[in-house]
Write a structure and sequence with these properties.
This is Sulfotransferase family protein. The chain is α/β, with parallel strands linked by helices. About 50% of the residues lie in helices and about 15% in strands.
Length: about 290
């Protein structure tokens, strides 16, 4: 059995992957893939991880969790998608930077089902933007969120290295959130293990959010009657329509954080781009590029 953990992160895909996969539940069920909604595993996983203290679950414990989570009998692939798999937003930053506990957390999740083949899916996002989302999500102050970490210490390369190290050869799929409108169909197919020729509902969930009614109508017109488009051709059409019809309120992110200047934003953004270049070629990472 394959156990797929979409770890998030906070301020990225939210429940969109869950919604997209649930929109394709009929096809997935026929192909022995089950999508588990967060309410079926959230408390269950937390209790099990605490009880096991990071250690592997026994076969009996695994079966108890599977019986509580699953609706189908013996699926071959199980997909779980929720940013709370990485804990509360207030724990997203520590003295060691972004998601310092991601390795420990991934290992603990894999140990819930040590007899299964675990896979980890995770989005990365410009820390300057991510931090503004976390500051909004976190119930505490900016200082308590940062825990003494400086903006230039928010390096995704270190976070993903921790994840890969903990994965111990298990599949790790990473993508850049800024690219997600162009690559969403491919991400959904990877998570659900859906081949290119399988029908996919919900493929335009991000495009619908980014485009106004006129832009969406234009996109649908451009795609009409062109069922044999390659991935590259479709992405080119998406990019062209986004350039001309994206909603004005979606063009810029307003970053207002204590002590941050435009120079800080530029420096953090530059480090982010450098990190993406490293992550894309990091052994053990399957990086989805536009």
């Amino acid at each position: 059995m394959q156990m797929v953990f979409h770890l998030g992160v906070h301020g990225t895909d939210g429940d969109r992957l869950l919604k997209t996969l649930l929109a394709n539940r009929a096809w997935l069920t026929r192909h022995r893939t089950e999508i588990v909604v967060p309410s079926r595993h959230r408390g269950l996983f937390e209790e099990a991880i605490m009880a096991l203290n990071g250690g592997p679950a026994t076969p009996e414990m695994q079966q108890i969790m599977l019986d509580a989570m699953l609706d189908s009998d013996a699926p071959e692939r199980v997909v779980m998608s929720t940013p709370t798999l990485l804990g509360a937003p207030g724990r997203a930053i520590g003295r060691d930077g972004l998601y310092p506990q991601i390795g420990t957390r991934a290992a603990a999740l894999a140990n819930l089902f040590p007899d299964a083949q675990a896979e980890f899916f995770v989005a990365v996002r410009n820390p300057a933007v991510l931090l503004s989302k976390l500051d909004h999500l976190n119930s505490g102050s900016y200082e308590s969120l940062m825990q003494g970490c400086q903006p230039t210490q928010l390096r995704w390369r270190d976070t993903i290295r921790r994840l890969v190290g903990a994965a111990q050869g298990r599949r790790v799929v990473v993508w850049c959130h800024e690219d997600v409108p162009l690559i969403w169909p491919e991400l959904a197919r990877l998570a659900g293990d859906m081949p290119p020729d399988a029908p996919l509902s919900g493929a335009m969930i991000y495009m619908q959010e980014l485009l106004g009614e006129a832009g969406l109508a234009r996109l649908q017109t451009e795609l009409a009657g062109r069922d044999q488009l390659s991935i590259q051709q479709r992405r080119q059409i998406y990019a062209r329509v986004l350039q001309s019809d994206m909603r004005p309120d979606r063009l810029d992110e307003n970053i207002v954080l204590p002590g941050w200047t435009q120079q800080t934003v530029d420096e953090v953004t530059g480090l982010y781009h450098a990190d993406l270049a490293e992550i894309a070629v990091l052994p053990g990472v399957e990086f989805v590029m536009p």
